[in-house]
Design goal:
- The protein has two domains: about 280 residues, Purple Acid Phosphatase, chain A, domain 2, CATH 3.60.21; about 190 residues, Alpha-Beta Complex (5'-nucleotidase,  domain 2), CATH 3.90.780.10.
- The strands form eight sheets. Strands 6-5-4-1-16-17 form a six-stranded mixed beta sheet, with helices on one face.
- By secondary structure, it is of the alpha/beta class.
- About 30% of the residues lie in helices and about 30% in strands.
Length: about 475
């Protein structure tokens, strides 16, 4: 029998600095995350550490250096393998390939390819060695990368879970050998898609576990589908996933495994002083530019969940609609990154909260199209957090009942929206580019009715101007989105 410990993180999203909670305990930060990994490597004989994507975004330390700082910090964290997340392409695929050259750790991905000749952009898998065991790690990416790279027509990925499962079979048939002891899928497709994928996997392919990311799922225990454990480690750096495995090298199989989500804090992990020093060096550079106050809220405002109306969702959608030429701002819930902000708001807070600074498009839709858009957004998948969800500017009221899948009310300024009504709506560029996918409404007739036009070139220019000219801002959850069971 042999022992193997597998540590894993996902969706770190630039969570490089520690935080102190109400319990007065310092949590997270790359220094403690690195400290925990190093501690376990010292305590256990055979340890590998994996990262399931989305290292980037969420911090001005990342955005200011366009991911170079993140790669340098990840080099120090030294995962044995990492896969690509959808936010790894935020700076463009060409820039990602440049960043890969800067990485001193392997990045694996099986399904991102050049459409002209089906050439993979990355090595699909890696074989790791630990204590005489051979561990095969295969990387799979979320289909949302297509949404982020609409302008890069030469780049593609497999569009659905069935095709991804088929790719696992191709890799297994061609490269998994009798010397492979453990086969891991390192995915960034979300917990729901991981479940679908596990159900489609042929047992003869020998997949032993799925270590995932993307949906930011905090788990109390591993889920087992089709005999395959599926795990995720939430988001950020304040926790890490841990498998403790007993491997039967005579029977060539995992004899026993245990998994837990391990808190990373001052009680469980020493801080790695070297990586802490490098983080602080980057922070000192960004502080000069970003540590200035732009406004004061009346109080702390929150955005606790992407799948409900929130205070910050209302604030942002309202300020973008204020004195505009459109009726309704539809703000992507995922475009707001912080769970809370204020009462003092620094430029750094503002940029980290809305890092996707893109254009604002105005479209004219009918009442019928708007109703179909909202109905689709509210589908069952939304409540798992795997689809796009939205915040709406003042005047909109949506009442939706889950049990009947019906919109019981859809009104604007107190008047029920009729099929023949016409509404001017605004969307950020990302949501405009993926309009049909995110709303399930053809965009052709909308373009024929009125050519969509850019009404702002920078969302954050509007946000900063509004913040600096309005002090004491407040917002409340007021029933714009009402979800009934």
């Amino acid at each position: 029998m042999k022992k193997l410990t597998i540590l894993h993180s996902n969706d770190i999203h630039g969570d490089f600095l520690p935080s102190v909670g109400s319990d007065n305990i310092e949590k997270g930060g790359l220094a403690r995350l690195s400290g925990y990994v190093k501690k376990v490597r010292g305590e256990e004989e055979n340890v590998i550490y994996l990262n399931a994507g989305d290292m980037f975004r969420g911090s001005v330390i990342d955005s200011e250096f366009r991911g170079l700082s993140t790669i340098e910090l990840m080099n120090m964290l030294a995962p044995d393998a990492s896969t690509i997340g959808n936010h790894e392409v935020d700076y463009g695929v060409a820039h990602l390939l440049f960043l890969e050259k800067c990485a001193r750790f392997p990045i694996v991905n099986a399904d991102l390819y050049i459409t002209l000749n089906n050439t993979r952009l990355f090595k699909p898998y890696i074989n790791l060695e630990a204590g005489g065991m051979r561990i095969m790690v295969l990387g799979l990416l979320t289909e949302e990368v297509i949404a982020s790279t609409k302008s890069e027509k030469v780049i593609g990925t497999y569009l659905n879970v069935a095709e991804a499962a088929k790719e696992v079979g191709i890799i297994a048939d061609n490269y998994r050998t009798k010397d492979t002891d453990i086969f891991i899928l390192l995915t960034h497709i979300g917990i729901e898609k991981d479940r679908e994928l596990a159900a489609l996997l042929n047992p003869d392919w020998g997949v032993d576990m799925i270590i995932g990311g993307h949906s930011h799922t905090f788990m109390d225990e591993a889920e087992v589908v089709n005999g395959i454990p599926i795990v995720q480690a939430g988001t950020g750096s304040a926790q890490i996933g841990r498998f403790d495995i007993t491997y039967d090298d005579e029977q060539k199989r995992i004899a026993d495994w245990k998994w837990r989500l391990q808190p990373v804090n001052e009680n469980t992990a020493p801080a790695d002083p070297l990586i802490g020093e490098v983080v602080n060096d980057f922070k000192s550079i960004t502080d000069v530019k970003y540590r200035r106050v732009v406004t004061h809220f009346a109080r702390e405002l929150t955005h606790p969940s992407r799948i409900q109306e929130t205070e910050m969702g209302n604030l942002y959608s309202d300020l973008l609609q204020d004195e505009s030429s459109f009726d309704i701002m539809i703000m992507g819930s995922g475009a707001i990154r912080k769970k809370a902000m204020g009462p003092t708001v620094e430029y750094q807070d503002m940029i980290e909260n809305t890092p996707f600074d893109d254009q604002l498009f105005m479209l004219k839709v009918t009442g019928n199209e708007f109703r179909r858009m909202i109905q689709y957004v509210m589908r069952d998948d939304a409540w798992e957090g795997h689809t796009e969800f939205y915040q709406y500017s003042k005047g909109v009221k949506i009442v939706y009942r889950k049990s009947t899948h019906k919109l019981e009310e859809l009104s604007f300024n107190g008047k029920e929206i009729e099929d023949g009504d016409e509404l001017l709506i605004a969307l950020q560029n990302y949501h405009y580019n993926n309009f049909e996918e995110f709303f399930n409404v053809p965009i052709g007739p909308i373009k024929e009715r009125m050519r969509p036009r850019v009404v702002a070139t920078s969302v954050n220019n509007i946000v900063e101007e509004y913040f600096t000219t309005h002090q004491g801002l407040d917002a409340a959850v007021e029933g714009r989105i009402v979800i009934l069971d």
